[in-house]
Amino acid sequence: MSTTSTTSTTTGGARGAAARTAKDTRTAGRTAPRGSTERRLARAGWLYASPALTLVAAVTIFPILFSVVLSFSEVHLSYGGFRIDGFTTDNYAALAHSSAWFQSLAFTVGFTLVTVALELALGTAAALVLERLGAARGWILAVLLLPWAMINVVAAQLWGYLYNGTYGVVSWAIEALGGGEPVILGRPVPAMAAMAVADIWKTTPFVAIIVLAGLMQIPKDVYEAAEIDGSGPWTTFWRVTLPQLRPILAIAVLFRTLQAFGVFDLPFVLTQGGPGTATQSLAILGYKTLFQNLSIGPGAAVATSTAVLVLGCCLLFLRAFRAQVDEGGR
């Protein structure tokens, strides 16, 4: 008899709990319609952002799409502007057989690889030094940022003065050290090296700031554990610091690669792409084709091909960055 009563009580209690749970669920559904609230917030967000998105589309997306259209068009100049007489792929066929395009691509890729690699190494070294500084870190950081804060054209003109064969300090130093009469910007290899030095001087602080931010996020107990295990400075850097910095380094490489691949102002001010076409980047080639030769279709094809290459590099680095983040999370 007692067993039957206990079973009935338990069954009744379970049914009552289930009924109360169902009632609470219905009440919560009536009082907190999360789906509709989130949709309203999303619509409000798009409404508030629509002016900025419209401006971005007008000044960024539309010119890009228009450039793509021109690259597939037969464009002819006239006194009233230009006209499109039809669509063609001859502009890209001309690029495929253009030695100037391949030379510009080779210079741009080489310039990007050399400068980004050296800036990454020097920026990491500078960030490691800055991390260990005390009260003087702020002042040294401010001085370090001066080259990065300088306008690109002004910095390029400054280096042009330094490289000048008549009154340039660098040319005078080379001549004083017995290097003969210096012709830095008038020969292909010295001009490339001089341009790389100018770019490294200006953009290494940018890499150093990014790496320093990553170093500040590494927990100190990781270094304490490595010290307890008897790890030396080099072993700690390669086994502890560098793995922790891989996502930050991926971001630095991404930004610097995109900037270096589209370099224009530095070769334009220093060499105009010369001597010959030794320092002619893809951006310089597109500028000369479009604005000096007035070949709108081929110039747009150069610009579009450059944008496609930059987009491909961006996607590859984003994929690598995601892999680094996933590996760090595991």
| Tally of helical segments | 14
Number of domains: 1
Q: Uncertain spans, ≥5 residues at pLDDT below 50?
A: 1-19, 21-32
Spatial order of the strands forming the largest sheet: 1-2
Helix and strand element order:
HHEEHHHHHHHHHHHH
Strand content: under 5%
Helix content: over 70%
Quick one: biggest sheet?
2 strands, antiparallel
What's the short version?
A two-stranded antiparallel ribbon has the order 1-2.
What would the keywords be for this entry?
mainly alpha; disordered N terminus; 330 residues; MetI-like fold; 78% helix; 14 helices; two-stranded antiparallel sheet
Structural account:
This protein has 330 residues and is mainly α. The chain has one domain (98-329): MetI-like (MetI-like fold). Helices cover 78% and strands 4% of the residues. It has helices spanning 2-31, 34-71, 90-96, 99-131, 137-144, 146-149, 152-163, 169-176, 188-216, 220-228, 233-261, 265-270, 282-292, 296-329, and strands at residues 73-78, 81-87. It has a two-stranded antiparallel ribbon. Strand 1 and strand 2 form a beta hairpin. The chain is globular and about 75 Å long.
Helix and strand topology:
Layout: H1 2-31, H2 34-71, E1 73-78, E2 81-87, H3 90-96, H4 99-131, H5 137-144, H6 146-149, H7 152-163, H8 169-176, H9 188-216, H10 220-228, H11 233-261, H12 265-270, H13 282-292, H14 296-329
Helix pairs in contact: 2-14, 3-14, 4-9, 4-11, 9-11, 11-14, 13-14
